[in-house]
## 1
Amino acid sequence: MKAHTLSYRVTLTRISTCGRIETLMQDETRDICREDCEEAMEALYRFERDGRTATLSDLMQEPDLDGRPVADIVMELALNGQVELSGDSVSLTPRGRDIGHRIYSRHILAERLLRALGLRESCAHEEACRMEHILDDEAVAEATKRLDRFETMLDSGVQRLADASPGEYHVAFLATGRTQRRRLEDMGIGQGAQLRVWRKQPRGPVEVEAHGARLALGRGVATKILVAPHLNSNSDTQLDS
């Protein structure tokens, strides 16, 4: 979206429900960028999800829009056909709703990933607000699908091979690159394969048996192999490779 420079007094015209034209004035000198517009559409989408109708005042009080020229952004969105103005209310058009939903989905995924990495909620939210503008929609859909399955696996007892106690397991997921995955598969440690953990050392390799062969896997590799107890194996909890 092309940035527009709006200087001194910016005029935003809106049409009230009775057809009366009103004018909102705002003193700003600010470039309106794509991120500004996406943040506003995401905020409006959140209002819709909560069953609320947003006003310009509501948007100005949104923490994620703090410091942004909200009136100017709304004017830009209205000119682009992404929002509709009626009286005090600001609502998304189908086009704006589609964008708002995509940005919201990106944010939710980014925040979940960051929280899973141990970031505090406030920090994760702030970083997700930055990440949501650069994530690819197809990548977001695939990552969300995998994250949902991963959380299901964790609930069913999946753990890193490096953390597994001696016993029988099946491989639930290989969090490796293609080359390393092929090497593991050649050794009989592919997704769904059964293996036995014989011994592990605190900082050394993990000794396993797969297809009758004993192998010593380095801890770096063992941390990328997710396993579940063999007695609780369930194909529905596996991720697609």
Note: The first strand starts at residue 4 and ends at 6.
## 2
Amino acid sequence: MASLSNEIDFDSPVVVLLDACTLVVSSLRDVLLRCSAAGFYQVRWSPTILDEVRGTLSDRISIADNRIDHLCAALERAFPDAKVECSEQVPPDLVVDADDLHVVQAAVADDVNVIVTANVRHFREDKLHDAGILLRTPDRFLVELFSHFPDEIAQVVVNRASDLGDTVPETLEFLRQHVPGFVRSLESHLS
């Protein structure tokens, strides 16, 4: 992002790198990706990020490898332009946790505007900002996106509920644990 504003400029094309933690929980992943598929932003991830998703789903959630392979293949088919190859070297002072340096490398390699992660404490937000990259939690990102496109984002959530045979309140309950501010905004809008 060229300016040093702390606001996401949704009037321009926005490129967003989703960290692995945002792609693990199915309800959150689905809403984030449906928003990208609807054209509200361009999604990016790296092979390392998808490897982390695989590891978390396998080791922590005990999902079968064939289901994980199916998920990752579906992500790559649905978003063929999302994969970013990380060849850029970046200063290590952009992160607090060196294990997350690959996330910043991917962001720099593809001129990403925003990194969305639940692990904001692993990154140096001030240094990323100076490098032209904004850092957002999934909740803050979705709240900001919703504030710019309230009717459209509400429809994304309504469609998700319908597609999965859930009610909207059920979908909101699935999301509440991960993005409570977004759910509150949606509930106010839908009431």
Note: The mean pLDDT is 92.
## 3
Amino acid sequence: MQVIDLEIPGLKLIELNCFRDERGFFIERFNEAKFAEMGLPRKFVQDNHSLSQPGVLRGMHYQFNQPQGKLVSVIRGRVFDVAVDLRPSSETFGEHFSVELSAENNKLLWIPGGFAHGFCVLGSEPAEVLYKVDQLYNPRGEGGIVWNDTDLNISWPIRKPILSPKDKVQPSFMAYKKSALVKGDWHMPALQL
């Protein structure tokens, strides 16, 4: 297992060791002692599993009341995964990082609380995404930013994604910046649409 500190502080890319032979493969996805040794979180309170069809884009979502850190991985298919720094006091506020996660490349992305997260499915196969999170989901503490925000300028590899009704009408990053959230208090109410 290798851990790479990314250019946006707090984000980490984890490359897992995969042991393959004629029977198949074995991967250790989580080891508390190794995570501690490498400075990764070890306390997770919920595991989530999503299936998304080709062309689906989910995001950009965040949780401000009980900000969630997420350990994201893909066990089937491929996704273009994106994290946006929403921490007002961060030097990288408003910057994003993207990476392809797939069942083949054995990479995990650690996204701490204070980031928006989203992904789109690549290719013609559905994608299954696993998330380990360090805080329980709080529906009253969720927010979002529109996926194709011009200020964020994310180079999505998809032009006409399949979106949920909610993701079609998320507010802009500019609206987020103007909201009370940028005062650094992640426990304030989210933008109302």
Note: DSSP finds three helices and 13 strands in the chain.
## 4
Amino acid sequence: MLSNLDDGDATLLAEACRAANPCLSMRKFIGGVTKSLPEGKRKDAGAMAETFFNMQVARIRLGVTADEFIAAIFSSENIGELKLTPEKMENCRDRLGRILAIDSLFITAKAASVLTAHEHPFESARIFTDVRPIFGDAVAGTDAVKPQAAVLVHNLKLRLEGEESERELYVAMDNRDLQTLIDALNRAKAKAAELSEFVKRGGLSYLEP
């Protein structure tokens, strides 16, 4: 798609990528790219911005320079698959090089790579709360049993990302455990607020989720 753009649209796309603020979310970054473009160009621009983001993440994880990454894409082994004329290929290489050099794209991709560089990054959580009855002994001479009391059980379901597949983890908690978790989360929020201000006072850009 990049090779088919005229020079004006290619420049417009590059400027939109450059104007987008770096952030932690690919979708948020793409939204920043497309919002400044005419309505009719947003869909294709969003698809290309996603491709650029994924390319930048791949380049970072491979530990190669932009020039090396682009050279690999346009290597002799891939020329046949690209189906581009020499002129279009050179034009596409130049455009891709300018796109991958944009700071906001690099910072967003780098942040995403750093944030997910763990064995099991968090994806989502739910808590299911159940009432568990406590039954007494059977009534003498019968099989009848009646609940005498009840307890609450909270099941925390964690969905974790992985290199090959997602993983689900269930943790059973009572009310005291739930409060312990809430206290820990509140403390983490307080620390996050303080550290974000510390980062800003240090002159660095703090990337909001």
Note: The chain has a mean pLDDT of 87.
